[in-house]
Amino acid sequence: MLVPLAGAVALAVLLGVAAYVIMSRDQGCGDSKAALRVVASPDIAPAITKIAAAYGKSSTEANGACVAVSVKEGDPASVTNSIAGSGATAGKFDADMWIPDSSLWVAKLRSTPKGSGISAPAVPSIARSPVILAAPKPVIEKLSSEFGEPSWSGLMSAANAATPDGLGRRIRVLPLDPTQNAAGLSALLAGAGILKASGAGDEQLVGVLRQLSETAVSSPENMFATMGKQSTRAPIGIASEQSIWAFNKSDDGQLAGLYPAEGTISLDYPVLITAKDQATRDAAKSFATALTGNAARKTIRDNGFRTPDGKPGGAISQANGLNPKAPRSLKVPDAETVNQLAQAWSRLKLGGRILALLDISGTMALPAVGAPGDRMRLISQTAIEGLKLFPDKTEIGTWIFSTNLNGKGVDYKEAVPIGPIGASLNGTTRREVISRSLANIKAKATGDTGLNDTLAAAYDKMKAEYEADKINTILIFTDGVGNDDPEGGITNAEILRKLRDEFDETQPISVIIVALGAKDAAGRRQMQNLAKATQGEAFFPNNALEIRKVFLEGISRRLCAPNCNSSQ
């Protein structure tokens, strides 16, 4: 009888000791608890929170202390700016671990003075989400007939401002702002790489960037909401695979993911340890290890992500509008290429302030080459087409010039005052007013070419009204004769001296000249010198097709202004 009793007592004692150890392990962390603060990209934060809760219950220790993990959301762009000490931010970053949605943010941060000391990720990737195309299911058939196989090249074509009568008339592209969203930047990198591989020039990329910059939205939520608006054009957007899953989960699966044929770039969710003291860094390393475990990977897959090897869970399915097969991976360009593209986007987002000077001298009535009608008609028609490339916020005004247009000795006259071309002017938009003015413009049969006096006055005006947040440009349309003013006025040497003396790189006003059919060597040389004096450019097109290209090349100068090299 005593033997079983003794055994029972011993068992009870053992159970009591075990309970005490377990409870002490859970409750005794109060005196030796390591607090770990984690900031994660909003899309993956719910998964990280679940993993952290399971990790806390396991009472995992680091240096003898239990680790208590708290997780909060942090927009990657805001966090990057906060650590770098520049740009818009939602507040100070004070966490011990950061999980952005893409290594692109890490590269950007480490390229800044304050972020250069940031350590390499402790874990290169804990999840993946391919950046793909998205569209409402009801328009898939229409997109297929217009687009063919989903591709970056097709998307770039639909978004090219240089082909307003192409796919863009039937397809509405909705990109994500690459300065705020890694999926948007990844898509630009993929698309730009495909364009470059096809042999496309900078002007085509600029045409795409210019158009996309006008329709970009700040977040996937805003993009998906915009897709629901009625339009005669079929909408197609850019999003991560996980964001489509998340939207469909809450909105009856109305979106479909379209996988570009060329492959894509994925969001990769690196883990950075930002803690300073060693004890917290050790706790962060412990949690980082837990993020790569089997249980964590399952949680990540259950939340619409793939694991780093591209394997999906049940969330990535045809039923959810997605393809479980992993798309081909495109190589992420080097840091310099990424920075150049980001800077190009930012520069093209700058507003423009343009004063266009149109030559109406007698020689503009001569026949045009490569188009019906005279030179004046060709210039005006092409300028009307060129207006389509500029967004509504661009400020444009026009002058006409010849000789004695506004009284004796005044060779220029304002046709349309400078202002936003989308704004109202005399009951209609300035864009329409300029188009009508161009359509009705006539060459002055007996007029000479008072180019120098006109350019001097235009430069004075633009300098007096300089706007620092815009690209300030004087755009001259002429026939290549140069200055031809029998009554005198400013000489060629004087106008060159004025431009060279007054050009200011801190407030640049560049002169771009479009000289149609310029054959005279001296005239071409003078116009090249005028442009070069302001780090501008002189173009000498011979036909309508070449003139259209000039508009895009002029816009592309935003990528280098004010340090562009003039071409011949």
UniProtKB/TrEMBL annotation:
<protein>
    <recommendedName>
        <fullName>VWFA domain-containing protein</fullName>
    </recommendedName>
</protein>
<feature type="domain" description="VWFA">
    <location>
        <begin position="353"/>
        <end position="555"/>
    </location>
</feature>
<dbReference type="Pfam" id="PF00092">
    <property type="entry name" value="VWA"/>
</dbReference>
<feature type="region of interest" description="Disordered">
    <location>
        <begin position="299"/>
        <end position="329"/>
    </location>
</feature>
<dbReference type="Pfam" id="PF13531">
    <property type="entry name" value="SBP_bac_11"/>
</dbReference>
<dbReference type="InterPro" id="IPR036465">
    <property type="entry name" value="vWFA_dom_sf"/>
</dbReference>
<dbReference type="InterPro" id="IPR002035">
    <property type="entry name" value="VWF_A"/>
</dbReference>
